[in-house]
Specification:
globular; seven-stranded mixed beta sheet; two-stranded antiparallel sheet; mainly beta; about 30% strand
Length: about 250
C-alpha cells in the first residue's frame, strides 16, 4: 500500500466544548493501524479486523509506551496506583487517529472538563525539560478508544486535495484500571464527528480519512467512575480482563 501525505491549505475548525482533541499532550506513532477494544463486540479499527489471539497478560512500564502497549496488547501497569480511595480518580486515554495510511495512536486531551471533574482530567506534571506531560504516577484509569466500523458519509475533504473521502466511523470506549488491567466500563459512543482533519496520511489509491472520535458525551459517561467514592462496590465488568487487540 502506497501512503501519501495530504495537507490542508487552511484550517477552519474550532474546538467545541466537551470535544476530546487527541494531539496535544503526546503523539505515539505506530507502524500498523492499531486500536483498542473491549472483550465483547467487534475489535480493531474496523469491523473486518481479525479477533485478537489469546496472550498471557504482560506488565508494562508506567510510561507513554506502556499505555500504548496496554491498549494494543492488554496487560497491566503495576507501577500505576490502584483504582481505590477517595475521588476524583485521574484518567488518561488513547484514541486512533483519523488517518487511513500511517496512523498515530494519540493521547486524548480532555477539553473543558466540568468543574467537578477537573481533578480527574488533564492531570499533568513536568518532565526534565520542563514540558508538561501526563502524571502517570497518579493516573488510576485508562480509556482505550476503538474504531468498530466505518461507512461512506458522502463528504469530500476538499482541503485535503478534493478527492479524499470522509468515512463515518463508530467508536467504543473501554475504561480500564491501569494497575490490574481490569475492565471497569465499556461504552459504545456512536458515530464520530463529521469533520475533516487539517492533514492526513492516506492510501493514495483510495484516499479516505475517518471521522474523529466525538467526546461530547464522555464526561457524563465517565463521571460515575472518576467520582466513585471508594465506599460502595467498585465499578467493574464482572470477570473481564482487557486483552487488547494487537
Amino acid at each position: 500500500m502506497h501512503v501519501q501525505r495530504y495537507a490542508a491549505s487552511h484550517v477552519t475548525r474550532s474546538r467545541p466544548r466537551g470535544r476530546l482533541i487527541g494531539a496535544a499532550l503526546f503523539a505515539l506513532t505506530v507502524a500498523a493501524f492499531v486500536g483498542c477494544s473491549g472483550t465483547s463486540g467487534p475489535t480493531g479499527p474496523d469491523s473486518t479486523a481479525p479477533l485478537p489471539t489469546a496472550r498471557t497478560p504482560q506488565a508494562h512500564p508506567a510510561s507513554s509506551e506502556g499505555l500504548q502497549a496496554m491498549c494494543r496488547y492488554g496487560g497491566y501497569i503495576p507501577a500505576m496506583p490502584p483504582y481505590t480511595g477517595p475521588a476524583p480518580h485521574p484518567i488518561e486515554g488513547l484514541q486512533p487517529g483519523q488517518n487511513t495510511g500511517a496512523v498515530a495512536l494519540t493521547s486524548i486531551l480532555w477539553s473543558d472538563p466540568p468543574d467537578d471533574l477537573r481533578g480527574a482530567f488533564n492531570v499533568l506534571t513536568r518532565d526534565q525539560s520542563g514540558a508538561l506531560i501526563p502524571d502517570l504516577s497518579r493516573t488510576q484509569l485508562v480509556a482505550c478508544v476503538t474504531r468498530t466500523g466505518s461507512s461512506p458519509s458522502g463528504i469530500v475533504c476538499e482541503d485535503l486535495g478534493g478527492n479524499v473521502r470522509l468515512l463515518r466511523s463508530n467508536y467504543r470506549m473501554t475504561v480500564l484500571e491501569a494497575h490490574t488491567g481490569k475492565v471497569v466500563q465499556v461504552t459504545d459512543t456512536g458515530t464520530g464527528t463529521d469533520d475533516c482533519p487539517s492533514f492526513a496520511y492516506v492510501d493514495s489509491t483510495d484516499p479516505a480519512v475517518f471521522t474523529s472520535f466525538d467526546g461530547g458525551q464522555a464526561y457524563d459517561v465517565l463521571r460515575p467512575l472518576v467520582l466513585w467514592g471508594g465506599v460502595t462496590a467498585q465499578p467493574a465488568v464482572p470477570g473481564t480482563t482487557w486483552t487488547g487487540r494487537g
